[in-house]
């Protein structure tokens, strides 16, 4: 962490005074220590899950990532790239190497390799569990760098501290939550930092780094489209507001060219980087920035009069060309059914799109729009600080602060569409809150210092605050747009080397504030108000910390494969049914047996039970999922036929009715009906609803009571309490005593949370038609005889 | 399939404890689990497959391993590898049937079967002891029995069938509910009217003395050499008994001897008040059922069909000029019983293997567009040895939800079937499937899972001619940019 030191040391070069330079060096060391502590905080606050539960991979998707990482560490990168997985999506299989974002896997794989080559024998699982906390520390540091570029180191440190413990980010990066987002948020913030850095310095070096960071982001998460749309938006904003500069060009053009080239190297993106609508904005802005650059260049070499003529000429021709290009683009895009946008992106633009057309996207809980309380839960006091931060960014409005404003505005919109994207909002909220807090403390502490005897007039305090003063003054006259904008004269001189440029800037920046020093006393607040405000802000921060620690410890640390409940006497009860079921499968079934379940449990089944599944959480094939949904919503015989045609041996259902586990298959069942009905129209949702209500009690429809999901969930359920009272739906079930004809129960876990059934083999004989009544009697007698035949009784 | 070796050894102690019921017939089995006919299991020698090795040494080694793995099966007389039944329990209403049907029984004995005659209500009746079946086949010549003796009941009979054993049921006008329910469970519905018989006013036998045309000279035989033998049954078959029908949806049951179009089922002594429920060729006189586990069942509406009297009597069908000295009964019964007790029409397939053209050894995974060769062995049981099965209609499917490749296999007439094809341009988890269902033969259903992967990243063509303009474009752009930079930077 050399950057904080250098950054703080920067001003000292011109300041001159030895005591001042010493003080700044001291500040740098403190900043460094604070940053290290922030990293430790970010890491350690995420360890609650390990301490409270165990070092285990969480939830669903992380199990897949873990399995992929295991494969990578075992077989090497080329086999990983070419991995054709025949254990999922039976019988289609899945080309893992070409359909997965490899960033997370490669990161953890590299860490594992490095650690092992240092003779530290960590297992792959351990590395995977702790990847997310490590990268959240990195993300905090990246937030520091980004905010420092925008508003100086003080705001940076505050933002880093806030990001280290923001609950929204914790929810996705506790130890064990080994998911793409864990590294992607770091990559996102770091890419933005490098963009701002390039924008501020105009250095090609940073531009190249920016493209590389963007590449890492593309490797890690599908959310990279956010970057490649946000940055063009910002560039466009700068151009429109007359802030075009060569630094903007350097920040943007290499990113588009290099970034697109690099992105298309990632197998899962490939030609999408130039073919899908998500990327078109960047190319459009790329064209625009070149046009603008050309215009500025021509303006420079032509006389004003000639320039006017040229402008009219170019604008008329340009408009014609633009119209033609846009027409072609629209034609190309319109020829594809989804208008070239993928379903998930369309959901972002039109929040009702998914619920209207794609039940498979709408059915995922993290794709739902968030509720208001979830904002308070996930970003807490930041929600109130963000507006203050936005105001702070407007005075003065610089290239970088306008970027941050744009970032917060877009991410607020996206988070309102999908609860998952709250994660993108979190860094933006932290950065702006950091700015707000730091500015507030700046003003308040300055007020206190000026009014305390013996401190007033200390020149060192002034160093911090010259910016606001000077720029706000200068903004009024609107001669210079931002303090770190290069004056036009310098631009004309074409100072090429970036370093020199930067130095000049700094000198330029340092020179300006000196005349306005005397006026700062005018902005001083009353002493009492300042002290109280400082105390209140500290209190606010304390509340935030308390909330974050609570969220990390209680709300977001449950691994979801192990559940706990507190009994009335304070004891802890652990439900470990999932692992019980998966280990039963791995020990009692054949290696090549196929297990059918709803797709939620696909990743866990392949990773933990090592059995082939039909569908899993990578929901790429709607038809296949619909087939399973249809089977689950069909009567036993039809379901048996569907499963038999897919070589299924076992069916796994999750049932919470005994212990009151609400996210079980019965509660997800309507989605199965909808998704199944979307492809196979004979499954109709109204058949499963009584007067529009979803119910499983005596009022339920016959279709509902006879479907496979109901039967597999409630088979023998009445034996538990004699009444068949479902503790999730809080009602007695409709059909209590029934037999299964085509399935047989083979395993039910301790708390009945997972039930595994086996498909019965086809009957050896086909019965004759007549004497049905008699045959049923003979069947029952058969059962009795079987019972009696045991020689030991 | 190689993993079978261990379960076999584990079973060995168990196998040796079971009393060898027929020591004289001990023989070597190529072995898998006895009792059940598991055709999905290949019976091949361990890898590498004999195809790829030809040296006698290899054969010796294979023989040796085979012998070792077969030791546990020495004492068991019925197995998929000698599928012919050996021990047969005959249940009779009374022992007089033993002499009145002696021709049938003698022919069975002469073919090497051990017949165990018991009365159907014998209180010590039991099909199994210590979980092992004592018999391989069951003949129910007791149409009127209401209750079996001992531990035997309908469920036990059906379990016997479901564990792969064969059954002959002969009914009569006196057929009890018990016999009828056994038939129903096997997919054969006898006429519900207890007094009904098959009457045919055109196809009756001239020797019918009663004059009510219930003695039928039936000649509507199934056309299947496997079931009825190669020599055609010339003389009509004498039949006197009750009719049954088959569910059309039942793919397992076959009418071997069906009624003529003029036959119907009614009470011969009563006046026909309503149209008979069973008429014409819907009537089946003798049916066979081959269950899914290849257990075979024969159900006859007439016990007299098997009797010496019918076998020896001459026959002339009404309205037909040709008179036969001997009825077709003996030949019919003998041939059907040969089929029934697996002396004929029993196939086994196995040693399903495949390899990439030009390679030895079975790959674990294919790539799309690979060329592969497929082999399978099919043999037919001739009664005392396995003979190569020769047919030109065996097909293999390369199957993923639907067959992507369907090829007819060619045979070398030594039991080896072979074909070669190109893997389709679709990746996924495929199966080699041999589904062979031919009338009268045991159904073969083998499958072997094999994944097919797409190209690896370095298996695509590296330089394709159509892309040369693009290569040219990119290299000229690079060169142009370089020159431009040099000129721009140093040209001042």
UniProtKB/TrEMBL annotation, chain A:
Cofactor or coenzyme needed: Mg(2+); Mn(2+)
Domain STT3/PglB/AglB core: 592-651
Domain of life where this protein originates: Eukaryota
Residue span of region Disordered: 475-515, 764-793
Membrane-topology annotation of the record: Multi-pass membrane protein
Reactions catalysed according to its record: a di-trans,poly-cis-dolichyl diphosphooligosaccharide + L-asparaginyl-[protein] = N(4)-(oligosaccharide-(1->4)-N-acetyl-beta-D-glucosaminyl-(1->4)-N-acetyl-beta-D-glucosaminyl)-L-asparaginyl-[protein] + a di-trans,poly-cis-dolichyl diphosphate + H(+)
Composition skew (Basic and acidic residues), residue ranges: 487-515
GO cellular component: endoplasmic reticulum membrane
Record carries keyword Transmembrane: yes
Keywords: Endoplasmic reticulum, Glycoprotein, Glycosyltransferase, Magnesium, Manganese, Membrane, Metal-binding, Transferase, Transmembrane, Transmembrane helix
GO molecular function per UniProt: dolichyl-diphosphooligosaccharide-protein glycotransferase activity; metal ion binding
Stored InterPro entries: Oligo_trans_STT3 (IPR003674), STT3-PglB_core (IPR048999), STT3_N (IPR048307)
TM helices/strands, residue ranges: 25-48, 127-146, 152-170, 182-207, 213-237, 249-274, 280-298, 310-334, 375-395, 402-419, 425-444, 522-546
Subcellular location: Endoplasmic reticulum membrane
Basic residues: compositionally biased ranges: 764-775
Domain Oligosaccharyl transferase STT3 N-terminal: 29-432
Assembly information from the UniProt record: Component of the oligosaccharyltransferase (OST) complex.
Family as reported in the entry's similarity comment: Belongs to the STT3 family.
Database matches in PANTHER family: DOLICHYL-DIPHOSPHOOLIGOSACCHARIDE--PROTEIN GLYCOSYLTRANSFERASE SUBUNIT, DOLICHYL-DIPHOSPHOOLIGOSACCHARIDE--PROTEIN GLYCOSYLTRANSFERASE SUBUNIT STT3A
Name of the protein in its database record: dolichyl-diphosphooligosaccharide--protein glycotransferase
Native species: Linum tenue
Species classification: Eukaryota, Viridiplantae, Streptophyta, Embryophyta, Tracheophyta
Automatic annotation (TrEMBL), chain B:
Record field: transmembrane: 468-490
Boundaries of every OST48 N-terminal domain copy: 87-339
Membrane topology: Single-pass type I membrane protein
Every OST48 middle domain range: 354-492
Known pathway: Protein modification; protein glycosylation
Subcellular location: Endoplasmic reticulum membrane; Membrane
Highest rank taxon of the organism: Eukaryota
Keyword Endoplasmic reticulum carried by entry: yes
One GO cellular component, as annotated: oligosaccharyltransferase complex
Swiss-Prot/TrEMBL GO biological process terms: protein N-linked glycosylation via asparagine
InterPro entries (alphabetical): DDOST_48_kDa_subunit (IPR005013), OST48_MD (IPR055459), OST48_N (IPR055457)
Keywords for the protein's UniProt record, in alphabetical order: Endoplasmic reticulum, Membrane, Transmembrane, Transmembrane helix
Function, in words: Subunit of the oligosaccharyl transferase (OST) complex that catalyzes the initial transfer of a defined glycan (Glc(3)Man(9)GlcNAc(2) in eukaryotes) from the lipid carrier dolichol-pyrophosphate to an asparagine residue within an Asn-X-Ser/Thr consensus motif in nascent polypeptide chains, the first step in protein N-glycosylation. N-glycosylation occurs cotranslationally and the complex associates with the Sec61 complex at the channel-forming translocon complex that mediates protein translocation across the endoplasmic reticulum (ER).
Record's subunit section: Component of the oligosaccharyltransferase (OST) complex.
Family to which the UniProt record says this protein belongs: Belongs to the DDOST 48 kDa subunit family.
Protein name: Dolichyl-diphosphooligosaccharide--protein glycosyltransferase 48 kDa subunit
Taxonomic placement: Eukaryota, Viridiplantae, Streptophyta, Embryophyta, Tracheophyta
């Amino acid at each position: 962490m050399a950057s904080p030191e250098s950054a703080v040391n920067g001003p000292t070069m011109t300041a001159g005074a030895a005591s001042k330079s010493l003080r700044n060096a001291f500040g740098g060391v403190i900043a460094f220590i604070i940053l290290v502590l922030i990293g430790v905080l970010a890491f350690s606050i995420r360890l609650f899950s390990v301490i409270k539960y165990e070092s285990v991979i969480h939830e669903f998707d992380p199990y897949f990532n873990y399995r992929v990482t295991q494969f990578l560490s075992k077989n090497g990168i080329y086999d990983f790239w070419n991995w054709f997985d025949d254990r999922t999506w039976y019988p289609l299989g899945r080309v893992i190497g070409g359909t997965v974002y490899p960033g997370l896997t490669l990161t953890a794989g590299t860490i594992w390799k490095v650690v092992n080559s240092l003779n530290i024998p960590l297992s792959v699982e351990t590395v995977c569990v702790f990847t997310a906390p490590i990268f959240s520390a990195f993300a905090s540091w990246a937030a520091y760098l980004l905010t420092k570029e925008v508003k100086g180191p003080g705001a940076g440190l505050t933002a880093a501290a806030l990001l280290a413990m923001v609950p929204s980010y914790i929810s996705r990066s506790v130890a064990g939550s080994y998911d793409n987002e864990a590294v992607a948020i770091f990559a996102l913030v770091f890419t933005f930092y490098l963009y701002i850095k390039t924008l501020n310095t105009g250095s090609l070096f940073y531009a190249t780094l920016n493209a590389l960071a963007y590449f890492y982001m593309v490797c890690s998460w599908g959310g990279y489209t956010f970057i490649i749309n946000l940055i063009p938006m910002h560039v466009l904003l700068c151009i429109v507001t007359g802030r075009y500069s060569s630094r903007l060009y350097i920040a943007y053009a290499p990113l588009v060219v290099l970034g697109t080239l690099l992105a298309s190297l990632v197998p899962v993106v490939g030609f999408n980087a130039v073919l899908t609508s998500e990327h078109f904005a960047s190319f459009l802005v790329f064209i625009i920035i070149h046009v603008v650059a050309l215009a500025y260049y021509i303006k420079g070499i032509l006389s004003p009069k000639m320039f006017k003529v040229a402008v009219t000429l170019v604008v008329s021709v340009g408009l014609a060309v633009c119209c033609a290009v846009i027409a072609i683009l629209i034609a190309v895009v319109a020829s594809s059914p989804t208008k070239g946008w993928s379903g998930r992106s369309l959901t972002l633009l039109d929040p009702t799109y998914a619920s209207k057309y794609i039940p498979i996207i709408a059915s995922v809980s993290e794709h739902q729009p968030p509720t208001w309380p979830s904002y308070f839960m996930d970003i807490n006091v930041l929600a109130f600080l963000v507006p203050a931060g936005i105001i702070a960014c407007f005075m003065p409005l610089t290239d970088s602060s306008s970027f941050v404003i744009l970032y917060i505005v877009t991410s607020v919109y996206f988070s309102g569409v999908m609860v998952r994207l709250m994660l993108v909002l979190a860094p933006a909220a932290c950065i702006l809150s950091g700015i707000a807090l730091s500015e507030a403390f700046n003003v308040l502490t300055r007020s206190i210092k000026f009014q305390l005897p013996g401190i007033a007039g200390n020149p060192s305090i002034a160093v911090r605050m010259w910016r606001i003063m000077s720029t706000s003054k200068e903004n009024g006259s609107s001669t210079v747009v931002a303090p770190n904008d290069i004056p036009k004269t310098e631009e004309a001189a074409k100072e090429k080397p970036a370093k020199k440029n930067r130095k000049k800037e700094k000198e330029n920046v340092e020179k300006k504030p000196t005349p306005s020093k005397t006026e700062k006393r005018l902005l001083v607040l009353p002493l009492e108000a300042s002290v109280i405000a400082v105390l209140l802000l500290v209190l606010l921060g304390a509340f935030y910390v308390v909330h974050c620690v609570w969220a990390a410890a209680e709300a977001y640390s449950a691994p979801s494969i192990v559940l706990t409940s507190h009994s009335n006497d304070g004891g802890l009860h652990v439900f470990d049914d999932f692992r019980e079921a998966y280990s039963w499968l791995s020990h009692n079934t054949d290696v090549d047996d196929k297990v059918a379940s709803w797709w939620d449990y696909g990743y866990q089944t392949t990773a933990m039970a090592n059995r082939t599944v039909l569908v899993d959480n990578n929901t790429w094939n709607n038809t296949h999922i619909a087939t399973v949904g249809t089977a689950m919503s069909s009567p036993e015989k039809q379901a048996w036929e569907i499963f038999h045609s897919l070589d299924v041996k076992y069916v796994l259902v999750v049932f919470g009715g005994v212990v009151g586990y609400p996210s079980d298959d019965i509660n997800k069942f309507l989605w199965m009906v909808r998704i199944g009905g979307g492809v196979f129209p004979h499954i109709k949702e109204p058949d499963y609803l009584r007067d529009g209500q979803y119910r499983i009690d005596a009022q339920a429809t016959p279709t509902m009571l006879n479907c496979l999901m109901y039967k597999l969930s409630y088979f023998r359920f009445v034996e538990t309490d004699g009444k068949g009272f479902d503790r999730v739906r809080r009602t007695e079930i409709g059909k209590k005593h029934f037999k299964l004809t085509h399935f047989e129960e083979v395993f039910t876990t301790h708390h009945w949370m997972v039930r595994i059934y086996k498909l019965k083999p086809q009957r050896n004989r086909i019965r004759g038609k007549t004497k049905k009544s008699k045959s049923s009697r003979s069947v029952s007698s058969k059962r009795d005889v079987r019972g009696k035949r045991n020689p030991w009784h | 399939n190689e993993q079978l070796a261990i379960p076999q050894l584990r079973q060995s102690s168990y196998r040796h404890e079971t009393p060898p019921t027929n020591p004289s017939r001990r023989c070597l089995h190529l072995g898998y689990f006895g009792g059940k006919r598991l055709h999905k299991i290949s019976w091949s020698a361990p890898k590498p497959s004999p195809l790829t090795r030809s040296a006698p040494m290899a054969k010796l080694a294979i023989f040796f391993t085979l012998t070792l793995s077969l030791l546990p099966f020495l004492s068991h007389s019925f197995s998929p590898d000698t599928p012919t039944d050996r021990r047969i329990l005959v249940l009779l209403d009374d022992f007089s049937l033993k002499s009145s049907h002696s021709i049938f029984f003698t022919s069975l004995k002469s073919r090497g079967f051990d017949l165990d005659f018991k009365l159907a209500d014998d209180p010590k009746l039991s099909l199994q002891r210590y979980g092992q079946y004592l018999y391989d086949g069951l003949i129910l010549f007791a149409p009127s029995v209401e209750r079996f003796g001992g531990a035997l009941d309908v469920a036990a009979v059906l379990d016997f069938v479901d564990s792969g054993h064969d059954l002959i049921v002969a009914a009569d006008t006196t057929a009890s509910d018990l016999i009828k329910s056994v038939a129903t469970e096997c997919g054969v519905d006898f006429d519900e009217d207890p007094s009904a018989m098959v009457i045919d006013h055109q196809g009756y036998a001239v020797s019918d003395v009663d004059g009510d045309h219930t003695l039928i000279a039936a000649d509507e035989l199934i056309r299947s050499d496997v079931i009825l033998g190669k020599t055609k049954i010339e003389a009509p078959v004498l039949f006197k008994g009750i009719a049954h029908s088959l569910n059309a949806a039942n793919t397992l049951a076959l009418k071997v001897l069906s009624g003529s179009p003029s036959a119907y089922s009614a009470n011969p002594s009563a006046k026909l008040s309503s149209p008979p429920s069973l008429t014409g060729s819907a009537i089946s006189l003798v049916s066979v059922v081959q269950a899914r586990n290849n257990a075979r069942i024969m159900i006859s509406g007439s016990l007299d069909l098997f009797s010496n009297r019918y076998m020896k009597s001459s026959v002339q069908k009404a309205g037909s000029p040709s008179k036969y000295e001997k009825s077709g009964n003996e030949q019919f019964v003998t041939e059907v019983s040969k089929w029934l007790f697996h002396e004929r029409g029993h196939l086994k397939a196995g040693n399903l293997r495949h390899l990439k053209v030009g390679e030895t050894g079975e790959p674990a995974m294919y790539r799309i567009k690979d060329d592969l060769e497929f082999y399978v062995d099919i043999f037919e049981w001739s009664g005392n040895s396995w003979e190569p099965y020769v047919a030109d209609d065996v097909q293999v499917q390369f199957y993923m939800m639907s067959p992507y490749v369907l090829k007819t296999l060619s045979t070398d007439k030594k039991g080896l079937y072979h074909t070669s094809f190109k893997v389709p341009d679709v990746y996924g988890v495929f199966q080699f499937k041999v589904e062979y269902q031919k009338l009268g033969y045991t159904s073969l259903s083998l499958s072997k899972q094999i994944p097919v992967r797409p190209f690896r990243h370095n298996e695509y063509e590296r330089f394709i001619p159509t892309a040369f303009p693009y290569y040219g474009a990119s290299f000229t752009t690079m060169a142009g940019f370089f020159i431009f930079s040099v000129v721009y930077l140093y040209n001042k």
